[in-house]
């Protein structure tokens, strides 16, 4: 009977209440409730749609793509975001997320509020658990008795109501007391962690402290304003706490342009030295390395610079330059790396230079270039030929290797150089639109992309001056005036006349004479000439710029000096029907010469031409002649030149009778 009664007492409410407080009786439910409250505070506050959306977008768009390498831009910086729609879209998404976080502090403030609430709840739970747990331990150790009322049970020889007394110290409660102690320890640890998190939030955030230290040094100008928004740096601080500061800096270089600028190697104005089959790259240290030269911040250090080239045409497609020791990094220090054994031609190469901090590769700086093409080969007879007043022709031999086009650079004194591009299929070219009497230097290069060859060919030439125009001769018996027009003036120009005698009867026949005049001259007078002598006059403009000399196109004029005219023309006799005149023979008379007499009426239309061998001539006046009528008489001496098969007439001797 004893054992059934003890078992009954173990589950009797009075016996349980005598040794267990209500708190201890519902301890498992209390512990479950406390855990659920803490989880709700931890999770639900940041599940507010406005907060949760920003945090989720930050981790999905910024962190996962950059940190985990899901973004194609991250694997290798070889995509030109200016022409790639997908790259532009990704960059805009990152920019929108980061800019919204820079103007927001909701996540930061809610995290602080959540921590304060957790501290308060932890304190409440700790006080409750400690206070009621202490009471329960005191109750258990007191060994309080319990009384159980029993109704009559004849089968058990109990014939009336009675009370049974039990000593309730056998209740198994050590396990629950151990669970309570474990919960108190865990709540204490959680309280410590939450308080430490608040301390970290205000004092130990690594990215924020790094930014503050850089701004305080004044060495790098960073535009981070914590008063306008704290979520941006706060989320990156959380990322640095979980993934490491070097990995976080990597994400920052992809997410924030200012940080990218700080961690990017400084590319010079001429970052590359390109040759036909190799590339040499130059860059200066990143701003973060220069700052670390003067400052120390935990374990941040520029370990090296990674230099890659794409496409990789040899095994040497990636180089690494270790960061210099701080004591050796001078302000003028620059790094260099060289890729060799490249194919060149029309291949476009992408060179990427990236800073490596710790073991993480930051976003790099990309340089797109071509190799220098081989230059054209000079023609055996020279580059320039057939030089004219306004044009020149060029010729050359085709270069080795492949290239895109030719570039011709035309330069002259006091003028801006002119560049012209033309097809690579040509080996001849005519350059037009030049100025006369001008010294030019022409340089012919091959070009691939924006890279010119290092082996160009060049030549200097002087264009021809403009030739004279309207060249003519005003001829007399013993003189001639040669006249011309045209734009022949110039500081370096000179007019050149070449005189050649072609009369077979002259003693100086075939003799040439050269006369040089100022470029301003427009005429030249020849004197002391022999009558009936043929001359060929060649007139050109010569331009001289030592050691270069050019001559314009030559203009010619040919003439024969006239014979002397008859002299002393006079009236011998006149009556109503006849008119007689006479004259003296000309000087240096040629015996086979003849006289041509022209008689014309001054008032009327009468005109008659006669030939005469003597120096006296009589002719009949017209029938309608009036005695007082005036007649103009012209007498010229005409000589037939057999060599020219033409007649040369002298100037007329003229009188009115």
What does this protein look like?
The chain is an alpha+beta fold and 657 residues long. Strands 5, 6, 8, 9 and 10 form a five-stranded antiparallel beta sheet that branches. Strands 14, 15, 17, 18 and 19 form a five-stranded antiparallel beta sheet that branches. The relative contact order is 0.06. It contains 14 helices and 35 strands. A hairpin with a 7-residue loop joins β5 and β6. Helix content is 30%, strand content 34%.
Helix content: 25-40%
Taking all residues together, what is the mean pLDDT? Answer: 79
Name the beta content range. 25-35%
The largest β sheet comes out as: 5 strands, antiparallel
Give the number of DSSP strands: 35
Structural class: alpha+beta
- Which shape, going by the Cα principal axes? rod-shaped
Number of helices: 14
The low-pLDDT segments are none
Radius of gyration: 58 Å
Could you give the distance between the termini?
A: 194 Å
Summary tags:
single chain, 657 residues, alpha+beta, five-stranded antiparallel sheet, 35 strands, rod-shaped
Record the SSE blueprint.
Layout: H1 2-10, H2 13-19, H3 22-25, H4 27-44, H5 49-67, H6 72-75, H7 85-102, H8 106-141, E1 145-150, E2 162-167, H9 174-203, H10 206-217, H11 231-243, H12 245-255, H13 257-263, E3 266-274, E4 279-284, H14 287-294, E5 302-310, E6 318-322, E7 335-339, E8 348-357, E9 360-361, E10 365-370, E11 377-378, E12 384-385, E13 391-397, E14 405-412, E15 415-423, E16 428-432, E17 439-448, E18 451-452, E19 457-462, E20 469-475, E21 480-485, E22 493-501, E23 512-518, E24 523-526, E25 534-545, E26 548-551, E27 555-560, E28 567-574, E29 578-584, E30 594-601, E31 607-612, E32 616-620, E33 631-641, E34 646-649, E35 653-656
Helix pairs in contact: 4-8, 5-7, 5-12, 8-9, 11-12, 12-13
């Amino acid at each position: 009977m004893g054992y059934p009664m003890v078992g009954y007492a173990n589950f009797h409410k009075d016996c349980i209440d005598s040794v267990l407080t209500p708190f201890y009786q519902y301890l498992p439910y209390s512990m479950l409730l406390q855990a659920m409250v803490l989880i709700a505070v931890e999770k639900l506050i940041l599940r507010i749609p406005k907060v949760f959306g920003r945090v989720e977008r930050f981790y999905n768009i910024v962190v996962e793509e950059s940190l985990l390498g899901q973004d194609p831009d991250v694997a290798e910086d070889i995509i030109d975001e200016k022409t790639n729609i997908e790259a532009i879209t990704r960059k805009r998404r990152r920019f929108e997320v980061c800019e919204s976080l820079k103007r927001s502090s909701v996540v930061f403030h809610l995290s602080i509020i959540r921590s304060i609430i957790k501290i308060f709840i932890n304190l409440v739970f700790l006080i409750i658990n400690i206070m009621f747990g202490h009471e329960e331990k005191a109750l258990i150790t007191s060994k309080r008795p319990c009384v159980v009322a029993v109704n009559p049970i004849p089968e058990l020889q109990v014939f009336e109501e009675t009370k049974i007394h039990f000593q309730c110290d056998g209740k198994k409660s050590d396990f629950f007391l151990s669970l309570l102690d474990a919960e108190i320890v865990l709540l204490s640890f959680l309280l410590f962690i939450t308080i430490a998190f608040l301390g970290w939030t205000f004092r130990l955030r690594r990215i924020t402290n790094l930014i503050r230290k850089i701004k305080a040094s004044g060495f790098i100008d960073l535009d981070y304003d914590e008063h306008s928004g704290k979520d941006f740096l706060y989320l990156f601080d959380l990322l640095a706490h979980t993934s490491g500061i070097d990995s976080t800096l990597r994400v920052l270089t992809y997410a924030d342009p200012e940080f990218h600028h700080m961690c990017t190697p400084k590319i010079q104005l001429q970052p590359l030295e390109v040759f036909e089959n190799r590339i040499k790259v130059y860059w200066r240290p990143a701003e973060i390395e220069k700052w670390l030269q003067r400052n120390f911040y935990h374990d941040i250090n520029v370990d090296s610079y990674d230099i890659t080239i794409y496409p990789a045409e040899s095994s040497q497609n990636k180089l690494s330059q270790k960061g210099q020791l701080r004591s050796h990094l001078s302000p003028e220090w620059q790094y260099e790396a060289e890729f060799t054994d490249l194919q060149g031609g029309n291949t476009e190469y992408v060179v990427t230079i990236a800073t490596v901090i710790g073991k993480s590769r930051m976003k790099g700086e990309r340089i797109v270039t071509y190799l220098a093409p081989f230059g054209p080969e000079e023609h055996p007879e020279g580059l320039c030929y057939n030089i004219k007043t306004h044009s020149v022709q060029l010729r050359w031999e085709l270069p080795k290797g492949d290239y895109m086009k030719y570039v011709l650079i035309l330069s002259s004194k006091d003028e801006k150089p002119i560049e012209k591009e033309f097809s690579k299929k040509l080996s001849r070219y005519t350059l037009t639109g030049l100025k006369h009497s001008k010294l030019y230097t022409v340089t012919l290069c091959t070009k691939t992309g924006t890279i010119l060859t290092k082996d160009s060919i060049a030549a200097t030439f002087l264009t021809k001056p403009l030739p004279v125009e309207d060249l003519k001769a005003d001829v007399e018996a013993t003189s001639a005036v040669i006249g011309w027009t045209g734009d022949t003036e110039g500081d370096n120009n000179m007019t050149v006349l070449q005189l050649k005698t072609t009369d077979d009867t002259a003693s100086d026949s075939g003799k040439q004479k050269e006369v040089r005049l100022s470029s301003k001259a427009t005429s030249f007078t020849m004197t002391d000439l022999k009558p009936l002598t043929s001359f060929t006059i060649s007139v050109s403009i010569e331009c001289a710029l030592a050691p270069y000399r050019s001559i314009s196109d030559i203009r010619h004029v040919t003439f024969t000096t006239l014979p002397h005219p008859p002299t002393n023309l006079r009236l011998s006799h006149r009556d109503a029907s006849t008119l007689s005149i006479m004259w003296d023979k000309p000087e240096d008379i040629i015996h086979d010469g003849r006289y041509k007499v022209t008689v014309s009426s001054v008032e009327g239309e009468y005109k008659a031409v006669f030939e005469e061998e003597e120096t006296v001539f009589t002719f009949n006046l017209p029938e309608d002649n009036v005695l007082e009528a005036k007649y103009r008489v012209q007498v010229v001496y005409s000589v037939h030149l057999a060599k020219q098969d033409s007649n040369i007439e002298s100037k007329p001797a003229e009188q009115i009778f």
